[in-house]
Amino acid sequence: MPAVERNESLRRSRSVRRERGSPTFGLNWRASPVMSTTRDRGATPEIRPQEVAVAVATYRRPHLLRACLESLRDIDPSPKTVIVVDNDSTGLADPDSLLPAAATWQLEYIHEPVPGISAARNAAVRRAMGIGVTWLAFIDDDEVADKKWLGELLSSLTRSAADAASGSVEVQLEQGGRQGITADDFRKPVPADGTQLRFASTANLVVSVDALRGVSEDGAVFDVGLGMIGGSDTFLTARLSSLGCTIVASPGAVVTETIPAERQTFGWLRRRRMRQAGIYVEVQRRVLRDRWWRLRRIASALRDTTGGATLWLIGWFDRTPVRRERARVVLARGWGTWLGLAGRLVAEYERNPARD
Predict the structure, then answer these.
(1) CA gap 117, 203 in Å, rounded
(2) Above 60 in pLDDT, residue 308?
(3) Which of 164-168, 282-286, 333-337, 351-355 has the lowest mean pLDDT?
(4) In whole angstroms, what is the distance from residue 148 CA to residue 250 CA?
(5) CA–CA separation, 225 vs 243, rounded Å?
(6) pLDDT tens, 165-196?
(7) In which region does residue 79 sit, left (phi positive, over 0), alpha (psi from -120 to 50) or beta (all else)?
(8) Strands 204-208 and 135-139
(9) Reported pTM
(10) Distance between CA atoms of 61 and 143, rounded to whole angstroms?
(11) Contact 301, 257 (CB under 8 A)
(12) CA 34, CA 297: separation in Å to the nearest integer?
């Protein structure tokens, strides 16, 4: 489809959704029917797995990457291609060693020396555009896919005629973490099946390649300025929503993330919550532009700071250190919102130049 026609389709889709209503933005999704899509709702043929590529961006986690690829070997249906983007400065001497035995898909290995998760994801998008697939699924290198993962995502797309579908992420803690940390500290809310989302994570996502072309013909869809900060996937999916694309929840499409022991600390959780809160502010400011977004973010920051302070006081009175630590995580989220309102973001993926 030519770019002019595709953009016109996106504009028509956006106007339809504004007339009928759209879900609210924020951490709590509300279920709503799919109102519009850039795909033809009158024709929703089943998507063939050979139309799909799976992208995995990786950086110096070979044992986790191998587990991820072995899980992709066992999924049913199997994709046409798995694209591995290595963001290490040196790359692999023998990329073919990544291919699991008995894998039915093709392995595409890309060495992307430009540091940052955004550059790695963009390299995967460009390769997907080059090999002619119509759908691109994303999974992180520290995740393993359930056997039905891809089938569930594609079924959600077929049922909804959506442009993207977002699955759920289970959490598994690596042994040796800090006492008091549980898997619930890392889990995210799981929206109901078919819920329309305003943004999503590439930790578990499938998206139309045509929709990505609507953002950038050359595949540079992830903001490289956020490569070391994080949140480029949130910005991209929010951008897709603003263009009229439909993203639906597919909770039956499950991947399991392994949390390494070094991340099982309340300090790491505080940094993550602070960064995420700032990203939500920037997404509303730069992309979604809801009328009352600033007031809602101020209310959220006040709720987190007062709620976190109250929880900390309860933990101080009942002498519960874990309660106080969780209170500090809530306070960090509120502080991240205040920083975001001030135009400051917290970098999460900073690297040591000496190691690169």
Answers:
(1) 12
(2) yes
(3) 351-355
(4) 12
(5) 21
(6) 999 999 999 988 888 899 999 999 899 999 99
(7) beta
(8) antiparallel
(9) 0.83
(10) 11
(11) no
(12) 26
What's the burial of 239, exposed, middle or buried (CB within 10 Å: 0-12/13-18/19+)?
buried
User: At residue 95, does pLDDT exceed 60?
Assistant: yes
DSSP H or E run through 71: helix 62-73
- pLDDT band (50, 70, 90) for residue 237: very high
- Which tens digit of pLDDT belongs to each residue from 252-277? 999 999 999 999 999 999 999 999 99
Give yes or no for a cis peptide into 77 (omega within 30° of 0): yes
* Per-residue confidence (pLDDT) for residue 131, from 0 to 100: 95
SS3 assignment, position 246:
coil
> Helix and strand tally (H, E) in the chain?
9, 9
**Residue with tokens 């993203």, as numbered in its chain:** 247
User: Cβ-count burial of 218 within 10 angstroms (0-12 exposed, 13-18 middle, 19+ buried)?
Assistant: exposed
- Quote the pLDDT of residue 12: 39
* Span 100-126, pLDDT tens digits: 988 999 999 999 999 999 999 999 999
Transcribe 112-149 into DSSP letters: --S-SHHHHHHHHHHHHHHHT-SEEEEE-TTEEE-TTH
Are residues 177 and 264 in contact, defined by beta-carbon separation less than 8 angstroms? yes
* Helix or strand run (H / E) with residue 42: none
d(C-alpha 275, C-alpha 282), whole Å: 11
In DSSP notation, 171-206 reads EEEPTT--TT--GGGT----PPTT-EES---TTEEE
- Identity of residue 27: L
pLDDT for position 351: 59
Angle 136-140-146 (CA atoms, 0-180°, nearest 5)? 80
Sequence-ordered strand ranges (E) for the chain: 52-58, 81-86, 106-111, 135-139, 143-145, 164-173, 196-197, 204-208, 247-259
